[in-house]
Amino acid sequence: MTVVSSRLDPSGPEYGSRREAMLAKLADLDAEHAKAVAGGGPKYVERHRERGKLLARERIELLVDPDSPFLELSPLAAWGSDFPVGASVVTGIGVIEGVECVITANDPTVRGGSSNPWTLRKTLRAADIALRNRMPFVNLVESGGADLPTQKEIFIPGGRIFRDLTRLSAAGIPTIALVFGNSTAGGAYVPGMSDYVVMVREQAKVFLGGPPLVKMATGEESDDESLGGAEMHARTSGLADYLAADEHDALRLGRRIVRRLDWRKAGRLPGPAAEPLLDEDELLGIVPEDLKIPFDPREVIARVVDGSDFDEFKPLYGASLVTGWASVHGHPVGILANARGVLFGEEAEKAAQFIQLANQSRTPLVFLQNTTGYMVGKDYEQGGIIKQGAMMINAVSNSTVPHITIVMGASYGAGNYGMCGRAYDPRFLFSWPSAKSAVMGPAQLAGVLSIVGRAAAEARGQAYDEEADVAMRQMVEAQIEAESLPFFLSGRLYDDGVIDPRDTRTVLGICLSAVGNAPAAEPAGYGVFRM
Amino acid sequence: MIRRLLVANRGEIARRVFRTCRELGVETVAVYSDADASAPHVAEADHAVRLGDPRAYLDPGRIVEAARQSGADAVHPGYGFLSENAPFAQAVLDAGLTWVGPAPEAIAAMGSKIEAKAMMIEAGVPVLAGVTVTPDELPALDLPLLVKASAGGGGRGMRVVRDAAELPAAVESAQREALAAFGDGTVFAEPLLEGARHIEVQILADSHGTVWALGERECSIQRRHQKVIEEAPSPAVSPELRRELCDTAIRAAKAIGYVGAGTVEFLLGENGFFFLEMNTRLQVEHPVTECVYGVDLVRLQLEIAEGAQLAGLPPSPVGHAIEVRLYAEDPARGWLPQSGVLRRFDVPEVDAEFRLGGRLRLDSGVVAGDEVGVHYDPMLAKIISYGETRAEAARRLASALARTKIHGLTTNRDLLVSVLRHPDFLSGALDTGFLDRNAVTAPLADAAAVRISGLAAALAQASANRAAARVLGGLPSGWRNVVSRPQSAAFLTEGGETVEIAYRFTRGGLAAEGFDGVTLVSAAPDRVVLESGGLRHAFDVAAYPGLVHVDSPLGPVRLAPVERLPEPVEQVVPGSLLAPMPGTVLRVEVEQGDTVTAGQPVIVLEAMKMEHQIVSSASGTLSVLNVAPGRQVEAGAVLAVIEEAAEQVPADPVPPGPVPVDPASPGPVLPDPVPAEPAAVGAVEAAGTVEPVGAAEPVEPAQPVEPPVAEPAGEQ
């Protein structure tokens, strides 16, 4: 047992101000989440209820096991876009009859549950999580189809939804559609491509073309029920396997279906777990408001891992990156955490070696990001920092164990890549409200533009407009700052959600359990390269 | 000397006799019906003989045969069943066995209430004037009066008449009931003593002419003429009155040459006491006398049967004892007997079972896991407390009862506690109208207690859910990164109301809607500790299929969890005849309004070239007819509805003695008010027929829903 000793002083002024800043950001986060929960607003929620229907989240709450945790994914999707926060669909990981499933539910109170480009990205991300982690995929369907004004962003890429469904099925991952309402035109292929289909009597409506379209196409007079009613599909077309008497019955049937899957997780079962010895509440006071000030990630690790027990690997070498072994909720993990922001050659080599070791023992990796990138400068370039960074990026890219990334603070430059940023396909990636991601810091970026502009002006023999330069720098700085903030990035699906730092242990616990549904991959065919 | 004793009985009295036998070194033989095959009294006996039919406890021939088969040399009848059946006593003696009881002649003499009265008048015992009555022969009597069956007991064939005009009808119905229940329709009328107390004297007579009277018992707390709480001594009896009562009882016993244990029952009114009847057997409530007099009455019974002499002076009473009879019945719903599985039965602080010498004694016929059926008396157990004073005994008994864990069945426990804590009871102001006069059927747990118990049940369930989780079990209960709504649970109370619980665990602890200021101290699947208003209480939670019991100092609460996602229930009116498959109606054999009997063909359906006969499910009236010949019907369609005949008069005359319900038709006599699987409660609720638990069967006051009693002859 190697218990991390803490040097955090929760009574000090530094801690207090960091905590206060974090709480303010969390209040903002709660407000954004509340927007997603509010769906289409009181008017449409009321109308939906008047029809005797359950809300998307109510459906999920009844579907999952009582008192089990539910991790909602991408709740801020579409943040900063023209579409409502949440992108008119709820996705997440929940437990149904003891089986971890990826659940999606259209929110019919938001523009009839219609899909916009963000809905599509969010849904595809959920399907991707189901596929990679081998979790049954349960869709609670009630959607008015594509948002027509943005169809150009949806129609062509949207075909992947149906492709993903059948690929999941081909991979042996069950797909289940519970149809509560409209699922027409392209949407009809959601039940169409699913392994199991439940339709709610007098509510589900599944057809390729509705009565007006049929009239236009063939002149045939028809009605909703005969074209796509639940009774018709259950008795005549056979598209529905189960006819549900009402929404509750559909959810009951959905649970019964999952129960009968006899689903077994392929990965390791977690071992016993002790709570961290240090208070997770103190995670609020660790990250400085100004990310230029480094912080010790061991303070975070000590408040996240089981028993605050962390065996550091190579502690005296490449000290700007902390690596080591721990477990979270009984799942063994290897942790890579930035200590002083900058990655030097030693850190890159240490990371590459550690990642290989984790692959040898098939241990999932957790990346705790707070990096300003790889070191620049003559000495470092000449010392081969590109080769060394490439080694680390190579290791991260080709590692076959599950990766989970938490962006605690800075995530700039190629550090984002080396520390398993979104493009490196971690199984899950979550941000703290204190996170910032960009090619470089806003001030640096503006400064670079200024230097380049000045040099260009000089080369042309022109005088540099200092006044315009100030304005340009301010504008660029503000824009980059805004675009590096977690809500903005989360809105664009560059993470799986912004989380309260105090929930890090819980989120990691759910994700590590989720990845255990898939079997561990074989390690790469070389021995570990000693660095 | 008795070597091997057969107890011709079941339940707690059989166990009670066995306990003394073990102490004396007498081998024990149990008899059992198939319904009792796994009953505790069978397990405890050295030998056990199967009788089969639930009624077989009433079959003298079978019992004597069982004694022969088991090699028993003596028979103890217990109480009820054949205990006061003179021919049975005779048959035992004729078989050359020892009969633990009085001579058959004494039993016969006291068996007829009219004859017994006449004998007592002769012996100088004060008796209420009784007159035999028939509907044609109605003498002018002072009102109010009581019409009673001469051979009766257990309240059957008994009618209170306050208006002369009611008399003929009362006599007629009492006769009918007496004939059905006891095979003897003789009834008589006597003045009704209102506000009187039921006082009885325990006597013990040996075969050498010594008769002891071991003081009195007061049994005034009665419901429907059945005793519920008994005590010794009576708070109304002075030493002088006691001497007078005892002398009278001894006189009565001597008048008929009585041998063995017996009880002389009196009514004590303002104008003195009057002989009611004499019970020629051990009484249910004998333990209170045992506690106060320090004697083992069963042991004395056996010794007297062996010819021993009562030596020395009768013992003197010390202290006070109170007994309650715990019944599986619902006082709030007309004392409806309950059946089902007794899931748990723990009486705290019990220091004696079936024996004297304790402060809290338990004589129980059942143990946890037993199925309490409809065949026999619904008495589960007797609990007896003993103290220096009456107040001490009452307080101890009330507290133990309140803390007793009784799971699976509704009982009269709450009523017993309420009576024991009632000011009138504590002051000793009792009479046989106590329960009619005082509203004591309210549950111990008030509405607020039920609600917080519901919260405890929900939190215990949450804890159990987490513990049983196959994945993510170690993660925080009900954790959400995006909060939309709380966890929820709903329960149906015994009163038929729904308690809805909404809760969430926040970083600050429990947040439960409508429970401001309630904090969670700890939660485990079987125990939840909550603090409310600065007071900390522990709630013991026990969950069974479709049933949750929450026991706490706030009072015991029984809840039926409402299913979150119930299976859809087709709303079908009881008595509906459904089409078993799609088809065409060929014939309708009866018309709407016709009377039909169970099994009578009603409709003939043609399907798949076959004729299918739809027969009536019950006897009654065809109240709804939905189809006509030629009509196409879907599977499950309601073709017709039979309205069951409301009042079911037993068609067959029932043999004398207590009447166990025919196992084949328990329905009309003993409605089962609590569905065996309370899951059905949720289902019923979901179907929209919102009926409180158990209210489905209305109580019919005109037709006493008296359970078949094990002790039939004359508890008053």
TrEMBL record, chain A:
PROSITE patterns: COA_CT_CTER (PS50989), COA_CT_NTER (PS50980). Pfam families: Carboxyl_trans. Residues 22-273 form the CoA carboxyltransferase N-terminal domain. It comes from the Bacteria. Residues 28-280, 275-522 form the CoA carboxyltransferase C-terminal domain. InterPro entries: AcCoA_carboxyl_beta (IPR034733), ClpP/crotonase-like_dom_sf (IPR029045), COA_CT_C (IPR011763), COA_CT_N (IPR011762), MCCB/AccD1-like (IPR045190). Gene3D superfamilies: 2-enoyl-CoA Hydratase, Chain A, domain 1. One of its GO terms (molecular function) is ligase activity. This is Acetyl-CoA carboxylase carboxyltransferase subunit. It comes from Planotetraspora silvatica.
Automatic annotation (TrEMBL), chain B:
It catalyses: N(6)-biotinyl-L-lysyl-[protein] + hydrogencarbonate + ATP = N(6)-carboxybiotinyl-L-lysyl-[protein] + ADP + phosphate + H(+). It comes from Planotetraspora silvatica. Its cofactor is biotin. This is Acetyl/propionyl-CoA carboxylase subuit alpha. The keyword Hydrolase does not apply. Residues 652-676 have a biased composition (Pro residues). Residues 1-440 form the Biotin carboxylation domain. InterPro entries: ATP-grasp (IPR011761), BC-like_N (IPR005481), Biotin_BS (IPR001882), Biotin_carboxylase_complex (IPR050856), Biotin_carboxylation_dom (IPR011764), Biotin_COase_C (IPR005482), Biotin_lipoyl (IPR000089), CPAse_ATP-bd (IPR005479). Residues 677-703 have a biased composition (Low complexity). One of its GO terms (molecular function) is biotin carboxylase activity. The lineage of its organism: Bacteria, Bacillati, Actinomycetota, Actinomycetes, Streptosporangiales. Keywords: ATP-binding, Biotin, Ligase, Nucleotide-binding. Residues 650-716 are annotated as: Disordered. Residues 568-643 form the Lipoyl-binding domain. Residues 117-306 form the ATP-grasp domain.
